[in-house]
Amino acid sequence: MYEIETRKCEPKNFFAGNFPTLTETGTAGEKVEEHMPVMKNEEGKIVAVSATAENMIGITATTAEKEEPVVYYITGEFFADALSMPDGIELEELKDASRKISIFLK
Question: For a Cys staple, 105 with which of 7, 53, 74, 80, CB 3.0–4.6 Å?
């Protein structure tokens, strides 16, 4: 008659080390997910990295809807498997681009 509900929580570690993290804020130009690599569009708004990771400026700290404020990390050491990867972007390409801005992916 009664059934016991079971749930599972498997947290992912995001921070991979002690490298200092710095944040910056901007306005989302589209919906962005938490821990997503981002860049600025032509209007200067924060959007997911697309086509190439060379324009990457950081990794979002929180989820934000279009036109909402968004906080993103501009430096730090993070686990790559905890990222919300945009379509069409390869992890190796992202690692190379992120090192140039002091973001290190493990």
Answer: 80
